[in-house]
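Weekly modeling sync, notes
Attendees: S.R. (lead), two postdocs, one rotation student

Agenda item 3: backlog of single-chain predictions. S.R. asked that every request posted to the team notebook include the full sequence so nobody has to chase files. The rotation student volunteered to paste the first one in as an example of the format we agreed on. Action items at the bottom.

Example entry:
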Amino acid sequence: MQYPTLADCIGSTPLIRLQRLGRETGNTLLVKLEGNNPAGSVKDRPAFAMIEQAELAGHIRPGDTLIEATSGNTGIALAMAAAIKGYRMILIMPDSSTAERKAAMTAYGAELLLTETMESARDLALAMEAKGRGRVLNQFANPDNPNAHYCSTGPEIWQQTGGEITHFISAMGTTGTIMGVSRFLKEQNPGVQIVGLQPEEGAAIPGIRRWPEAYLPEIFEASRVDRVVDMGQQEAEDCMRRLAREEGIFCGVSSGGAVAAMLRVAREVQNATLVAIICDRGDRYLSSGVFDEASA
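Predicted structure, as returned to the notebook:
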């Protein structure tokens, strides 16, 4: 009998219907539970794909050192993938990231370097590569990031909705998820509306960014997003807590923001099937206090 490996468990995540939130709109509101991936987030898909494709191209081989700048989920996923495949992993991330994220990376055996900002983390990763200290996979410019979603996440959503999806809503960080899914869904039905989520000015929502022009991910194509929603931190956190308490869905702040954006859109349309990405699980945010009763 052929038994699966851990890598075989990446993807094929559930798509479920919300039972209470948005029920008054009369539309079908669905969420894709990416926290069910082995390392707990949607980033498992591109993390493994970027390493695998770099191997196939002959750019890396087991035993090499990989370097990546991350705000959290990609780093955890890459640490897992590196452990599976036998690479040394150096991750560079802002010191403001939660303790759970840092601990998860080191648990997989990754070496962790801390910087002040995500931009400085990206700069340091490239500087280390230039000095020959390892290979940067560069999720922000690597086409294997969106391709992973074009080949898996997008087809899964299309199949799971029976082609009935009308709106796809996703947070935008590296933008790999929304780029890959948009490309696939638009090929099936150009009428599917792609809604991207970015934080309002001043909002600090883990996993999504308003990038300065100089740091805009190279994989991002604005034409693939039909609408961009500016999301406030309070609205995202409130929806995250409601998902846990009213739907039993324990997720992070960016996922709360994605569902909050879906609820906005759902109030504007009729006879629609909307899908939002629940990109990770809430347990990696507990130390930040966002689930404390006092913050509700």
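Discussion: group reviewed the output briefly. The first helix runs from residue 44 to 56.
Action items: rotation student to repeat for the remaining queue; S.R. to check formatting next week.
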